[in-house]
Amino acid sequence: MAVREHLTLTIDLSAIAESALTSDIPVPKDRKDQSREGVIPATYVPARNTVFLSLGLTWAENLGAEDIFIGVNSLDYSGYPDCRPEFIESFEKMANLATRAGIEGKKFHVHTPLIHMTKAEIIQKGSELGVNYSETQSCYDPSPDGRSCGLCESCRIRKKGFQEGGIPDPTVYVH
User: Fold this and answer.
1) The domain that contains 36 carries what CATH number?
2) How far is the C-alpha of 112 from the C-alpha of 26, rounded, in Å?
3) Residue 78 located in a structural domain
4) Which of 18, 60, 109, 144 lies most in the core, judged by the most C-beta atoms within 10 Å?
5) For a pLDDT cut of 70, what percent of the chain falls above it?
6) Sign of CA dihedral 120, 122, 126, 131
């Protein structure tokens, strides 16, 4: 599959979504166990992936594309409900029911190439593909100069992924 066209949108969810990532709620730095069943963290942004996929669906239908990709992960993630396979399956079904293209027989497919990979596997695959990880950031609470905090859950998962993947972490951490 080839990318037909790129589009960059600036989306500010802070006006409608209260979260540690969109408002003044402190980013937790002490969440030790990312697998807490039924505990949605303060960093959850309400319906974020629904919004992203809806915008992607709109763009795909406009371009006549059938394939939509999103980088959600259900293994090494923070417990966000919109990163689960059942959410993606439901969105794909909805996309085919709620669009002119879907009603006219064109079927949309939502692809999640990272959904069942560990963070280590994702980092290894990115390295194989030539990703320059020094130009990426995962931190939920970077310092004013752009350094990663090193303490938030996202930083901890990233550090662990590099360590388990056997790849040096180029991230500059405050802690």
Assistant:
1) 3.40.50.620
2) 30
3) yes
4) 60
5) 94
6) negative
Cβ-contact 137, 154 below 8 angstroms: no
Residue with tokens 């396979």: 85
**Is 58 inside a domain boundary?**
yes
- Which residues span the domain enclosing 81? 13-117
Helices and strands, number each (H, E), in the chain = 5, 2
pTM, to two decimals: 0.89
Number of domains forming the structure of the chain: 1
Beta strands of 9-168 (E only): which ranges? 67-69, 109-111
**In this structure, is residue 20 part of a structural domain?**
yes
d(CA 139, CA 132): 16
Give the tens place of pLDDT for each residue, 130-141. Answer: 999 999 999 999
